[in-house]
Amino acid sequence: MRLPPCDEIHYEAPPLKLAIAQIRFPAAMGGHHESAWAAFGHQLASEYPLHEEEAPPILPSGAQPPLSQTERIHRFTDHSKSWSVVLSDGALTLEAQTQGYSSSDELLRRFSHVLKAGHSKLNIHQRHRLGLRYINEIRHKDLSTLSSCTKHELLNEDLIGFAAKLSDNAEHMLQEVRFKESDGVFVVRHGLLRGSIAPPHAPNPEASPADPYYLLDLDYWDDRQMALDLEQTQKQLKDFSDLIYRFFRWTLGKRLEQEMKPIQRPGDIS
Fold first, then answer.
1. How many angstroms separate the CA atoms of 126 and 34, rounded?
2. What's the alpha-carbon Rg for the chain, to the nearest Å?
3. What is 79-112 written as a DSSP string?
4. Does domain 16-132 have CATH number 3.30.700?
């Protein structure tokens, strides 16, 4: 994609609601025994000491496949309940909610630790899908229609498109665009909606059904089946993260980015 390079800037008030890193693997792997799940949980206990069984997790993209009646879903969570590891028969997922997320580097570091535990304790040595997803809900007092997004310098007018130029009253939009990249598929789901898209385990207390917000759901995945190479997988996730972040920065309007309160650090590009 033709996106300008930029260093990562940290914000005091980012619009992120949920960040997800996930690997899917053959269901025959994953340690279908209590002893394997217990060993995996013990390996992660210092960072994710809380454990519960629950309904299936969010997938990085697309429809969720049907699950067997006997599949067990394990969620391991930290004490702040802002970071979770979710294990099912065919997927290993790391989720970060707004209050816990600090940077892409931390997300990738944590996922590397989780993946190593899955490799050693659950015998995961094949991957069927690798994904990274960032769900953002942009809310602002001046956000009401698509034209308000550009009029008040909240979002890039090239992102919003023709509707904001033709009318001041366009109040709903949802679009999905897929980009075929050399290492996978990058999907942008965006538009002006109401309420919240946040899942039940990561609710948005600020949202009401009537509240408008701009969805920016950035999803990058590779569904080529291959042997699990831990180092190569981390490098690929880093590449995913870099493109997602550059696209995110491209979407921001000048006023919105200022009101997100950038935390300037040496080397940052503003």
1. 21
2. 19
3. TTSSEEEEE-SSEEEEEEETTT---HHHHHHHHH
4. no
Give SS3 for 157: helix
Work out the number of other CB atoms within 10 angstroms of the CB of residue 238. Answer: 13
Residues of the chain with pLDDT under 70: 28-33, 55-71, 198-207, 264-270
State the pTM of this model: 0.89
244 phi/psi in degrees, rounded to 5: -60, -45
Sequence-ordered list of residues with C-beta below 8 angstroms from that of 151, at least 6 positions apart, any chain = none
CA distance 113 to 43: 9
- Please state the domain extents for the chain: 16-132, 134-263
Angstrom distance (rounded) from CA 248 to CA 252 = 7
pLDDT tens-digit readout, 191-238? 999 988 766 556 566 667 788 999 999 999 999 999 999 999 999 999
- Which pLDDT score, from 0 to 100, does residue 16 have? 95
